[in-house]
Amino acid sequence: MKYRCIVCGWIYDPAVGDTDGGVEPGVKFEDLAEDWVCPLCGVGKDEFEPVEE
User: Fold this and answer.
1) Could you tell me the pLDDT band of residue 53, with boundaries at 50, 70 and 90?
2) 45 exposed, middle or buried (CB, 10 Å; 0-12, 13-18, 19+)?
3) pLDDT per residue over 4-23, tens digit each?
4) Rounded to the nearest 5°, which phi and psi values hold at 4?
5) Nearest 5°: CA angle at 36, between 27 and 41?
6) Is 43 exposed, middle or buried (0-12, 13-18, 19+ CB in 10 A)?
């Protein structure tokens, strides 16, 4: 499942990961470090919502 940042709209896709943030492809959103932040606007995981696919 993908997750959208409710502040800036960036989508976290586990198939892609966040290579700039050190997150390899295949890492589920739930498994991201608690201190991981949105690569675009810097908010935490609590500012993300699931995206219906």
Assistant:
1) confident
2) middle
3) 999 999 999 999 999 999 99
4) -110, 135
5) 115
6) middle
